[in-house]
Amino acid sequence: MNNNRYSISIRHALMLLVLLLGFPSWGYARETFEQDGVKYSVVDYGSTRECVEVAGLSEASQVVVIPRSVGRYKVIAIGALAFRDCSGLTSVTIPESVTSIGADAFQDCSGLTSVTIPESVTSIGGDAFYGCSGLTSVTIPESVTSIGWGAFRDCSGLTSVTIPEGVTSIGWSAFNGCSGLTSVTIPESVTSIGRSAFDGCRGLTSITIPEGVTSIGDEAFIYCIYNHRTTKTNQKYPSVNL
Length: 242
Prior knowledge:
The chain has 1 helix and 19 strands.
């Protein structure tokens, strides 16, 4: 009898969890609106509803300039999936008010050649620029502390990346499949490089692992043609061909 009671309790708990995950704003329908061809979604922080995130485009556009504010709302984020599959999009300017770029935000925007990431951004979500094969260079600002999993995966046109001081982790598959990448600068602040982070970056000729790195995931540099170097003071990874 007790076992059945515990089993029922567990089922009820799981059902409640599913409901909460399915309806993250339970009791509050997220407000959305459009302005100048861009969709916005109000972000609910309980006591205030004065912030929005970019939710997508209401009409096809090649060049998008996102404002710092829309009416009384401050634009603070590029939402998950916001510009996914917008293959005609060529240029996006993100304002200084934005602090995060969500997962899959620009996934498969194959026509995107230019994106300006402001100093206000602290995180770049998973698969944020996955499949943006038209991007040739990206400047990641010093405010960013983490680069999400697959953030620039399959950006085959990308030739150089400078990762700024302040970034502590490079997510798994972050630059996987960036076959055109010939130059990467990893700063001293990085402590971990995720699994398959640079998998298939066949254009890399050299990469230096700074002394602060204590963790490198499996196959982080597999299928790369490179001269792998580490700093002399990095005792954990003192040799080539990790």
